[in-house]
Design a protein that fits this description.
The protein has one helix at about 175-180, and strands at about 5-10, 10-15, 25-35, 45-55, 60-65, 70, 80-90, 100-105, 110-115, 120, 125-135, 140-150, 160-170, 185-190, 195-200, 210-215, 220-225, 235, 245-250, 255-264. It is mainly β. Strands 5, 7, 9, 10 and 11 form a five-stranded antiparallel β-sheet that branches. Strands 6-13-12-8 form a four-stranded mixed β-sheet, with no helix packed on it. A four-stranded antiparallel β-sheet has the order 17-16-19-20, covered by helices on one side. It is elongated. The model is unreliable at about 175-185 (pLDDT under 50).
């Protein structure tokens, strides 16, 4: 910048440059100085500084995001049930933490609890977040994660990085899972495709009193209309029901029985 560059004294010159953030990295920048003359008009000898400075405006990027499991189940309940590792493309500043947000249609703060004491940098470029998995009967699919907050050694802050459909949770107790797979109910295909349908068969159509589809919170998503006089399977349209884990509940003369199914 010519307007800011000037002689500070008869023997000291200041050159001012504008730094343009083009997200680039240049290690060991050399400097050449030439063209100056003394008061007698003698031209200076050219001077070169081979490694004057480093230039780094490039933001760090995650190279890999991985977990010890991508399907959180009952065996993962407890301390350190979930471990998520983020590896960056360059050394990072250990004074700055990497933060993670879970992206789901259900709040997960009480289900996946961050262990701050055990989380941290395990190498100059790898961060690990460790979570306690709570003992909660819940199922959540298509959970994404967003990571942010990390800085490299030059002070450049990473952009928020989002990974969709990273993991799922199925913490339905095994005793409940066995009951939901009771004999006498057939459902296929399972999983069913969103906007499609599945077929439902029951061992005794004439004794059915009610058939409903409910989500893991017990909310009724659909009541199934069927013809008890038909021996063939009933076609169930799942259009309008979002992807997730559901239960087909059948009330008959033996009580209520259910079968778990998935829409993807």
């Amino acid at each position: 910048i010519d307007s800011l560059s000037n002689w500070l004294s008869p023997a000291e010159y200041r050159a001012v440059y504008q730094l343009v953030n083009n997200e680039e990295e240049y290690p060991a920048i050399a400097l050449e100085v030439e063209g100056a003359r003394d008061q007698a008009g003698n031209l200076q000898q050219p001077y070169t500084s081979p490694t004057l400075l480093d230039l780094d405006t490039q933001k760090p990027n995650p190279m890999e995001i991985s977990a010890n499991t991508y399907e959180i189940r009952n065996e993962h309940i407890g301390e350190a049930g979930l471990e998520i590792s983020i590896t960056f493309d360059e050394p990072m500043a250990s004074d700055f933490q990497v933060e993670l947000d879970f992206l789901a249609n259900t709040p997960l703060e009480k289900i996946l609890v961050l262990n701050e004491a055990e989380s941290g940098w395990v190498s100059e470029s790898t961060w690990i977040s460790i979570y306690r998995v709570s003992d909660t009967s819940i199922a959540v699919q298509d959970i994404g994660i967003a990571c942010f907050g990390g800085r490299d050694m030059a002070g450049n802050t990473m952009d928020s990085d989002t990974t969709y459909n990273f993991l799922s949770i199925d913490l339905i107790p095994s005793s409940t899972r066995d009951y939901l797979s009771s004999d006498g109910i057939k459902l296929y295909p399972n999983p069913a495709k969103e906007g499609s349908y599945f077929f439902f068969e029951h061992e005794n159509y004439t004794r059915i009193q009610e058939v409903t589809i409910v989500n893991f919170r017990g909310q009724i998503m659909k009541r199934v209309v069927f013809n008890p006089h038909l021996a063939e399977a009933t076609k169930v349209d799942v259009t309008g029901i979002p992807p997730g884990i559901y239960f087909l509940q059948v009330v008959d003369n033996k009580g209520q029985r259910s079968v778990k199914f998935t829409i993807f």
